[in-house]
Amino acid sequence: MQAQKAPHTMTAVSVHVPSLDLDPATRSTLVQTIVDTLPHLPHFSEVERAAQRDTAFALLAILDPRDPLQAMLVVHALAAHHASLHLYRCAARPDMPLALILRFETKAGVLSRLADTKIRELRRLQTASALPASAAASVPGPRAPQAPAIAPSAPVRQATPAPRPETEAAGQQPGDAAPANSEADTEASPGEATGDQLLAEVAARLAAATLALAA
Q1: Residues contacting residue 193 through CB under 8 Å, at least 6 positions apart
Q2: Dihedrals φ, ψ of 22, to 5°?
Q3: Residue 80 exposed, middle or buried by CB count within 10 Å (0-12, 13-18, 19+)
Q4: Domain that holds residue 72
Q5: 67 in a structural domain
Q6: What is the CB-side half-sphere exposure of residue 43 using CA atoms within 13 A?
Q7: I need a surface site. Which of 6, 73, 96, 172 has the fewest CB within 10 A?
Q8: What is the total count of domains within the chain?
Q9: Would you give the DSSP letter of residue 7?
């Protein structure tokens, strides 16, 4: 007779799912998706798997998604985080060739940066949704384009030069041609006529004296 196998007994495992401010359908899908994206390690016991799920749910409680969009970002962040850790675990195996080690580490770094990006986007959405209405209204929006100081179709007036004192005294507008000399300006003054007469007399006396000396 074959010995009867002892019935397989399951270790009692308690998993603490965090309470989230989500609708029931989103919360249930979120929790199940997080469990499904955890790396499956064949040598893990049920207790170890429960601890792995508890760790993921602890991160879920800290991230605290509050609507379906935030829940989507949380799923992406946690899936990338756990996949990154799994790749680092594979790179640490002693029987792994160097080429695969470098490839695993490179992919793990990419997934780690992806998780950080999703968490930053989640925090930005949570900060924006936590602002009161008055604070949200006070946030300046995009500035409207300002009108030019001078309309393109408006004619540009040129500055008129200031009148000079001499043109003002003569009643002449700026830019007009200078008036011709008057007759009084063309005639010789009395002083100039007297000077010419004296020169003529001096010349006559010099001529007479020259004739006298010659005689």
Answers
A1: none
A2: -135, 160
A3: buried
A4: 24-130
A5: yes
A6: 0
A7: 6
A8: 1
A9: P
Q: Is 119 in a helix, a strand, or coil?
A: helix
Tokens of 84: 């990154």
Positive or negative CA dihedral for 186, 192, 197, 203?
Answer: negative
Per the domain annotation, does 192 fall within a domain? no
What is the 8-class DSSP label of residue 138? Answer: H
Dihedral of CA atoms 124, 125, 130, 136 in degrees, nearest 10, equals 90
Cα-atom radius of gyration of the chain, to the nearest Å? 53
Distance in angstroms (rounded) separating the CA atoms of residues 126 and 105? 32
In a domain, 182, yes or no: no
pLDDT score recorded for residue 155:
56
pTM for the full predicted model: 0.55
Whether residue 30 contacts residue 75, with contact meaning beta carbons closer than 8 Å, is answered with yes
The amino acid at residue 39 is P
In a domain, 174, yes or no: no
Please report which helix (H) or strand (E) contains residue 90, including its range.
helix 68-91
Structure tokens at 189: 């003054």
**pLDDT per residue rounded down to tens, the chain (215 residues):** 455 555 444 344 455 788 888 999 999 999 999 999 999 888 889 999 999 999 999 999 999 999 999 999 999 999 999 999 999 999 999 999 999 999 999 999 999 999 999 999 999 999 998 877 656 555 455 455 555 555 455 555 665 655 555 545 555 554 554 444 444 444 545 555 666 777 777 777 777 777 666 65
d(CA 26, CA 54) in angstroms, rounded, equals 19
